[in-house]
Design brief:
By secondary structure, the protein is of the alpha+beta class. It is built from four helices and four strands; from the N terminus they run βααββααβ.
Length: about 100
Amino acid sequence: MIIVRVRYRTPEGQRDAFLQQMFDEGLPQACRAEEGNICYDYFLNYEDPNEILLLEMWKDGTALAKHGKEPHFDRIGQVRREAGVHATIESYDSKQRK
């Protein structure tokens, strides 16, 4: 299993608008519907109203690679850039963490 942790940093006061656009366009829903997706969940930081954590889990590297070629993946990046949102991405292979 591949685990991806994305930390989004939104401009001041723009967190909810960014998330609303993502959901209005059906982007998280499209990711969740992909073959090999196990988890695609957003978490809000109670102490920092400009931070969002996205936790993704994928069956394997093949599923994650296919995800990166999907049109909705490109759209997520476009929405993020247009909103001025910075992303820090880390990934882990659960087999290597044992």
